[in-house]
Write a structure and sequence with these properties.
- The structure is a single chain.
- The protein has six helices and six strands; from the N terminus they run αββααβαβαββα.
- The termini are far apart.
- It is 47% helix and 21% strand.
- The protein has two domains: 1-84, no CATH class; 90-130, no CATH class.
- By secondary structure, it is of the alpha/beta class.
- The strands form two sheets. Strands 2-1-4-3 form a four-stranded mixed beta sheet.
- It is elongated and about 55 Å long.
- The protein has helices spanning 2-9, 24-27, 30-36, 48-51, 71-84, 106-130, and strands at residues 12-15, 18-21, 42-45, 64-68, 90-94, 99-103.
- GO terms for molecular function: iron ion binding; tyrosine 3-monooxygenase activity.
Length: 131
């Protein structure tokens, strides 16, 4: 919940050296947005390991905001963090159905691998045709 809070709701990131807000909670609250971009709160670099255990404030402005270097950096850090979470399944995004499938049986993993194999074969053929 802390990662959600400090990114989706109250996320800040740098753009061209300036701090910009992207979190919905900030963008929907003029007062907190002005506060977040002032010199009053504490800023910390976005690190999911730290952010995930940092308490958040839901009754007043945040005393601390986490700033990502950019969206790509935040995405990579979140993906790496999520990969370390031990779970009894894996997730796979299916672009054809725009859905996420739970890979919790060998059959589901084999089916996903088979689909990827076909995709790679088609992409290799397309590349050969362009050469």
């Amino acid at each position: 919940s802390q990662l959600y809070w400090f990114t989706v709701e109250f996320g800040l990131c740098k753009q061209n050296g300036l701090i910009k807000a992207y979190g919905a909670g900030l963008l929907s609250s003029y007062g907190e947005l002005m506060y977040a971009l002032s010199n009053k709160p504490e800023y910390k670099p976005f690190d999911p390991e730290v952010t995930a255990v940092h308490p958040y404030q839901d009754q007043a402005f945040q005393p601390v905001y986490f700033i990502a270097e950019n969206f790509e950096d935040a995405k990579v850090k979140l993906q790496n963090y999520a990969m370390k979470i031990k779970k009894p399944f894996a997730l796979h995004y299916n672009p054809f159905t725009n859905s996420i499938e739970i890979m919790n049986t060998p059959q589901k993993v084999k089916k996903a691998l088979s689909q990827m194999k076909e995709e790679l074969k088609n992409l290799c053929l397309a590349l050969e045709n362009l050469s």
